[in-house]
Amino acid sequence: MAGGSQGSLLFHCRFFLLTILVSSARPLSPLQLMQVEADTTSSGEKATARSPFSIALENLQKQIGYEFKDVGILRRAMTHPSFSEENHRALGVAGVYLIQSAVAVRYLSNDPEISGSDLSSKVVKMSDGSACARDALALGLEKVVRVAPKTNATSAVCGAYRALYGAIALDSGTVDSAVSVFWNNHGGFVSAI
């Protein structure tokens, strides 16, 4: 809609509310009327309160430099199995393979003569639990992931970290987007591993 049409729609909505107030046997108080206006956005849509989790997801997207088309995928990625049946387990499986493939391809690109055992060792070092937990904590995922009390925090953030990249691949429809975000947030190529 054009800007003028939105203003017209808003005028008609307010006129409709005023008509209801005038004809109602029990009119809304000025405070109730202000609440109706506060609960409505400028486009006339119902505004929704944002939870701390929603705010954390918005901040995470800004931090990693990727905006989800379907934030529900990111919600799932940041939900530990201890918290809900709708959780990050499958996305984490995709994410770990994505990370391992990204690392392997990066090392092979840098050194096509690398031995299989050296490559395997480097992949393991960059995708094992300690590397995963370190990278997850660097992103502050411990403040984002939803987890039940008394759950191992390291495994919770590590699973969420891996699931994040699986979620990006699913949301974007391409592994390349997830790999790009991984390297941008991991600090690029680390040759000293």
What is the topology?
Layout lengths: L2 H21 L6 H9 L13 H13 L6 H7 L11 H22 L5 H12 L1 H11 L13 H20 L2 H12 L7
Helix content: 55-70%
Radius of gyration (Å): 24 Å
Corresponding CATH superfamily of the largest domain: Ribonuclease III domain
The helix tally amounts to: 9
According to CATH, the fold-level topology of the largest domain is Ribonuclease iii, N-terminal Endonuclease Domain, Chain A
Return the CATH architecture of the largest domain: Orthogonal Bundle
Model regions low in confidence, pLDDT < 50 over at least 5 residues: 5-42
Order of helices and strands: HHHHHHHHH
CATH class category of the largest domain:
Mainly Alpha
Structural class: mainly alpha
Q: Which overall shape is indicated by the principal axes computed on the Cα atoms?
A: globular
Largest sheet: none
| Count of DSSP strands | 0
Mean pLDDT: 79
Task: Give the number of domains.
Answer: 2
Distance between the termini: 54 Å
How much of the sequence is in beta strands? under 5%
Textual characterization of the structure:
- With 193 residues, the protein is mainly alpha-helical.
- It folds into two domains: 3-38; 52-186, Ribonuclease III domain (Ribonuclease iii, N-terminal Endonuclease Domain, Chain A).
- The protein is built from nine helices and no strands.
- The longest helix is centred in the middle third of the chain and has 22 residues, at 89-110.
